[in-house]
Amino acid sequence: MIKRPQLLIAEDDDVLVETMREVLEEDFSVETAADGSEALEKAAARCPDIIVVDARMPKVDGYQACQAFRAQPSMAEIPIIIITGRTGQAAANRAFAAGATDYLTKPFSLSQLRARAQTWLMRCHELSKRGDPPAES
Question: Which domain holds residue 24?
Fold first, then answer.
C-alpha cells in the first residue's frame, strides 16, 4: 500500500474544513486544526508534507503560524498555502513575507486548491531528488 502524503488544514470554519477534507482526502491523508496554535502543535507532532492555513484564525493567525513553521528546521521547506478573504497585491505580499509558498483568495475553487497542493508536492519531490530547496512564488 502506498503511503498518502500528509496534509494539514488549519481553518476555523467547520463547514469549509469538511468541504476541503472531502475533496483533498482523495489524494491526501488529511488532519485538521481549528486555529494556528493547534496547527503548530499538530505539525510539530507529525510533520505534514503540505500545510493549508487560513490567514485569519483565533489565537495564532495564519501569518504567525506560517512564520513559526518556517522557523522550525524540520518544516522550513514544507509547502504552505495561505487562504485569505483579502485580495490585492498587499495581501499577496503579506502572505509571501510570512513564508507562504502560495496563496488563494476566498472564495476559491476546491479543484484549484487540490491541483496546487498536488503540484507543490510534486515540485518538492523533484527538487529533493536533485538536492535543491523549493523556490517560493
Answer: 6-130
